[in-house]
Amino acid sequence: MSPLGPRPPRAHASVDNLRTYLLDGADTTPHRPAVIQAAPGGGLETVTYEELTARTDRCAEALDALGLDVGDRVVIESDTSADALATLLACATLGLPFVPVAPGLPDERLHAIIAGAEPALYLQAEDGTRTGIPEPVGTGRFGPGGPALERAPAPRGPRRRRVVTPVDTAYIIFTSGTTGRPKGVVMSHRGVVSFLRGVRASGFLTAEDRVAGTAPLQFDFALFDIGFALSHGAALVPVPRDRLSWPRRFLAFLREAGVTQVDAVPSLWRPALRHEPEALAALGESGAVRGVLFSGEAFPPGELRALQKLLPKARFINLYGPTEVMAISVTELPNPLPPEAERLSIGTAVPGAEVTLIGTDGRVVDGSGTVGEIHVRSTSLFSGYWNDPETTRTALVPDPLDPASGRMVLKTGDLASVGPDGCLYFHGRADSQVQIRGNRVELAEVEVRFAAFPGVTGAVAMVLAQDDDEPRLHVFVTRTADGPAPDAKEITAFVRAGLPAYMVPHHLHLVDAFPLTPNGKVDGTALRALASS
Fold first, then answer.
1. Which residue has the higher pLDDT, 378 or 455?
2. Per-residue CA distances from 161 to 7, 117, 188 (Å)
3. Which of 268, 442, 411, 407 is nearest to 328 (CA)?
4. Which one-letter DSSP state was computed for residue 323?
5. Percent helix, strand and coil across the chain, each rounded to 5?
6. Rounded to 5 degrees, what are φ and ψ at 445?
7. Which of these, 66, 47, 93, 81, lies nearest to 147 by C-alpha position?
8. What is the pLDDT of residues 231-259, one digit of tens each?
9. Are 208 and 258 a contacting pair, CB within 8 Å?
10. Residue 2 has pLDDT above 50, yes or no
């Protein structure tokens, strides 16, 4: 029995809850693999749906004993694994929003997330090395037997009757924010389950599939992989992080684990295309890999065609959408891609969602070829940005087609047009948000970090494409006129201490002043020319 009274009811199977939806396979096919992962001593370890449910229940029982209430946040630092999944699902069982972060996140960044989320508990995997978690946050480690408490969370007092509802928060994903602070995207159980039901209706997976997940756990693409696999009764195959940078090891792991579907950002395929085309072709000839799903950044059509040539039997699926709605569309592309295709279709919205394009005049964009901003109406909309009502109001806006209804829609900031085929085609961002290797980056946050370095008076960040189409993050900084020039290595070390690796620029340029256009704005064209000189 918990300190606050009788054990709280578990997530009820008759209502939308992440735990009950994803572990439905434990009732129908308990002995089917749920997770196939690298074993500590080598080889593979298989965790069935029955065992994953048992681990989830052990973890939920231990968390329940701490007396945490519905809504108390739990930070989980780990790579994707069966034990991490059990911990996430245990939190969902008890209505504890989980905040996933990846190992290696800079301390300063993690502490900023902790300061913002005010979690009751921080958990890391058994082999985690993180120290210095501030009080009064409780700490512990988790493994197959559940969590082991190291420091008890501070008493928080009861606030709810501890009944978990579909509108309660399932998780909070912290992404790059324009203010220099991480921005927390709050997703409810109903929102996540609603989206996953829509994806399931598309029929891209079967229970026989083995889905390779490649994204870090703090990236919403990783949560999609988890939901995509488990909601179909399929097996999730987390690819070890140390295999991703080595294409030969990456492809060998796919073969060893019998992977049939690979979910990855497009940039992950680039090294394999360059250095291991024969190994890729072998996967294609055997027909082992039947599906490739990508998201997070644009797939250059030339590289996509090259991959399709090596995997001619595979289905290619373009997942599009922001964290605030998990995703909007899941679109199968033709294999091979037609030679005249210059942009990849993002199709239409998943069942249960609808997209409207709104022009700069506030009116609906009608006809093909005209660009408008994507607005989404769906039950899978996020609840808001954590503790940031002002920013929430800029994203969740009254439905422009029916403002009197009180219904809110997501104003994405993404631009698109409708093609002659009736499908949507992406045209980039309306603001300064970009994608770096599949990770969402607010250029303003990068600029704020650089500007905080002593002696730096301003910073401008931009993404420039290289000859190989790999996007590179460039930052230009100015300095005080009467002071010494800041050391580039010291600036980079300062930035690296506060931002995740994907937000650290590839190139740093020290300039005396920013070139300006006639209307006084920073001249991006001139900066691009400077970067290429």
1. 378
2. 11, 22, 18
3. 411
4. G
5. 30, 30, 40
6. -70, -40
7. 66
8. 999 999 999 999 998 999 999 999 999 99
9. no
10. no
The Cα–Cα gap between 325 and 435 comes to 17
Instruction: Return d(Cα 73, Cα 181) in angstroms, integer.
Output: 18
Helix (H) or strand (E) run with residue 498 in it: helix 488-498
Q: How far from the centroid of its chain's Cα atoms is residue 516's Cα?
A: 36
Report the distance separating Cα 426 and Cα 442, nearest Å.
19
pLDDT of residue 522: 79
DSSP 436: E
Tell me the residue ranges of DSSP E strands in 220-297: 235-238, 261-264, 291-294
Q: First and final CA of the chain: distance in angstroms?
A: 69
List phi, psi (to 5°) of 392: -60, -40
Query: Quick one: tokens of 423?
Result: 């499908």
The pLDDT of residue 9 is 57
Q: Is the pLDDT of residue 39 over 90?
A: yes
> 156 versus 151: which is more confidently predicted?
151
Residue type at position 351: P
pLDDT class of 198 with cuts at 50, 70, 90: very high
Residue 221 C-alpha from the chain's centroid:
4
pLDDT given for residue 206 in this prediction: 96
Cis bond upstream, residue 336 (ω within 30): yes
* Model confidence at 468: pLDDT above 70: no
Q: Domain boundaries in the chain?
A: 348-429, 433-532
Domain 433-532 = CATH 1.10.10.10? no
pTM of the complete model: 0.88
CB-based contact 69:91 (threshold 8 Å):
no
Q: Quickly count: other Cβ atoms within 10 Å of residue 520's Cβ.
A: 7
Tell me what pLDDT residue 429 has: 82
* Angle 70-71-74 from CA coordinates, rounded to 5°: 105
Q: Using alpha carbons only, how large is the chain's radius of gyration in Å? A: 23
Distance CA 428, CA 431 (A): 9
Cα 261-264-270 angle, rounded to 5 deg:
115
Give the pLDDT confidence of 381-429 residue by residue, as tens digits: 999 999 999 999 999 999 999 999 999 999 999 999 999 999 999 988 8
CA dihedral angle for residue 224, residue 228, residue 230, residue 233, rounded to 10 degrees: 180
> What is the distance of C-alpha 314 from the center of its chain?
24
**Among the four given CATH numbers 2.60.40.740, 2.30.38.10, 3.40.50.1380, 3.40.50.720, the one describing domain 348-429:** 2.30.38.10
Q: Pairing mode, if any, of strands 74-77 and 121-125?
A: parallel
Q: Are 108 and 497 in contact (CB under 8 A)?
A: yes
- What's the order of all strands across the beta sheet hosting 291-294? 44-48, 33-38, 235-238, 210-213, 261-264, 291-294, 315-320, 329-333
Please classify residue 90 by burial: count the beta carbons closer than 10 Å to its beta carbon, then call 0-12 exposed, 13-18 middle and 19+ buried.
buried
Overall residue count recorded for the chain in this entry:
533
CA pair distance 182, 167, nearest whole angstrom: 23
